[in-house]
Amino acid sequence: MVLLSLAYQSLKNRQLTSALTLGSIALSVALLIGVEQVRLGARESFANTISQTDLIVGARGGALSLLLYTVFRIGSATNNITYASYEHFRNHPAVAWTIPYSLGDSHRGFRVVATTEDFYNYYRYRHDRPVELAEGRIPADIFEVALGSDVAAELKYRVGERVVVTHGITHGRGVLEHDDKPFTVVGILKRTATPVDRSLYITLEGMEAMHLDWSEGAPPLAGEAIPAGQIAQQEIKIKQITAFLLRARSRIDTLRLQREVNTFEDEPLMAIIPGVVLSELWRTIGYAEDALRVVSLFVIIIGLLGMLVSLYTALTERRREMAVLRALGAGPWRIVLLLVLESGFLSMGGAIVGVLLVYVLSFLSQPIVEGHFGLFIPIQPLTLTAYLYVLAVIVGGLLIGFVPALRAYRNSLADGLTMRL
Amino acid sequence: MSQVAPAAPTESSKLAPAVELSQVRFRYEGGPDILHIPSLVVERHERIFLYGPSGSGKTTLLGLMAGVLRASEGSVQVLGRDLTALSAQQRDAYRGAHIGYIFQLFNLITYLNVEDNILLPCRLHRERRTRIGGQSLAATALAMATRLGIAPLLHQKVANLSVGEQQRVAAARALIGMPEVILADEPTSALDYDHRQRFLELLFECGAEAGSTLIFVSHDRTLLPFFHRAVSLPEINHVRAA
What we know:
A: 2 domains; B: 5-stranded parallel beta sheet; 9 helices
């Protein structure tokens, strides 16, 4: 006990160096655990970009690209699927619900997603959160559009605004504008911190209406254009969509449905299980995690080496103190213990402060990170890995403490009661 | 935590001298003999003055008596126990329990206050604590500090003390828990004449009250009249300085 209090008071006496050392260990622990928390948060956030959807169905092609263009709004489909195929599966007895997507147009860099009200009813992210309206209502008529919250915020659009959709996916103004058929903003969605925020939502009929007078992927020739006012919702027949999300009635049905989609005879289709492809995707981009982890491990090592340096340099000044302790009957091993306790205090204190720092920082930065990066980092108890990191730092600190301690041991054996400066 | 020191043998302790050296030789490993003392006996309650020029091995001899160094040959008995027969750990514990040590300078642990410095031996060694009896540590420290005239300084930082005050704190620490032997290594050499007188008087008085034996090492022979007996180290050391 007396050694504990000696170690504590000795550190307190060298307040500045002790605080700096402790601070540097705390920072490195915070970095290590922070990276771990962000990694988990990012993975969690990523995996929960879409939930409750059992299958995503699109034209046959790459599984990854299907996931990317339906969920992340990255890249585009090479082929569409017929509405008849969609209806076949929508009416399938094993299917609970479907959400059709028709993609391909954009507005000032944001994707336009044509869908039905099922999107607002069934789409879920982060386990069971639905898509909700912040204001207005969902698009019902042909030329009505709802905005994702990022779209509304970045373009500063309000309900009532007129929006012209660009043919194809371009940033800024495109080459071909559907400027003869402007849309009216009728609703703005609440923030979800998922790619949902970065799209505009129209009806399937709206998408069809824009291209009604187009033929073979080309705009209508002069005189052939059909004015917006002449298009009635009832007359529009939807011929094709890009993909659809599907929820099976039971988990067991999922695999059966997937097989059924993949072997569908009317046209080549493909069904993917989003969770599976998401985790494959995460694995490919997961190398970044390893790099981060290596960097933070080095930071820890540097923090501990800093402690070694500060304890080691202090030894020279402390030779007298060691001689006094020896005269008082403290054996050389007690002197070793004293110094190891000091490094133990520093590394343990550093670890505790570091963990607190992580929580304070994640508490403060959570809304900012969510707002800027769409990344929701949950404030959660330390994971087993984080505990192991903390333990490793403390044990590492204690072990490093042996370096100056053994030096002090040798000094004190050689010095005995001689007062060396 | 406190180590258990080998007890001074009680049977013979009434008779055994405080310190008894016989045929002691000491050399550092591979080096020539530094000390060869055929015989030196310090009786209990004696106040002896051990003098010799700088470099004559005074501190080495104190190191042998304190059990920090181990005699290469011969026996060093302290309170009837042969230190050369004890392990290093046992010698450390024995020193802590039975010996008070005062340095020439820099006696104090700078990061502890005066009181904590004084009480350190009691905290490190159970025997020193036990000998205080039922009194609390704080009360004992206060009594000792009052006796030495440093009571107002008890809660001060050591760095604020003058050298004279520091040496009195060192004396208090050496005397607390009434160790049988006090070893003092030129404790007055940094003090001026007046302080030296005063310090010696206090050390003698308190030492007598504690019943301690005092072995005082110095090169300053003007102090000689204050002691019961004087021993010249060059005379008892049979290794001749080259």
